[in-house]
Specification:
mainly alpha, single chain, two-stranded parallel sheet
Length: about 90
């Protein structure tokens, strides 16, 4: 609880910056590796049925995977260039 309270100003600033972007049609990008990546895919998948969020505006990225199926890329980890290219799509 103390850690969350200590980070409250940064969390508030992040939300204040994100909300206007999302209201203008921005995308919600989830980035993770391993379990955190899988949880990001799960959360992104649930946005549409739960909140009517457009599926094309939820972008889950998992290090070392080509998509939600979990199939591996040739590289063992997602490169910064590949992740940047995916986010620009």
């Amino acid at each position: 609880m103390r850690a969350v309270q200590a980070a409250a100003p940064q969390l508030t600033a992040a939300l204040n910056a994100a909300v206007p972007q999302l209201e203008r049609g921005g995308r919600l990008v989830y980035v993770g590796a391993g379990t955190s990546g899988r949880l990001g895919v799960l959360d992104a998948t649930e946005l549409t049925p739960t909140f009517s969020w457009p599926p094309e505006r939820a972008v889950p990225l998992i290090a070392g995977a080509s998509g939600p199926s979990g199939r591996r890329w040739k590289e063992p980890r997602t490169t910064k260039r590949r992740a940047s290219a995916t986010c620009r799509r």
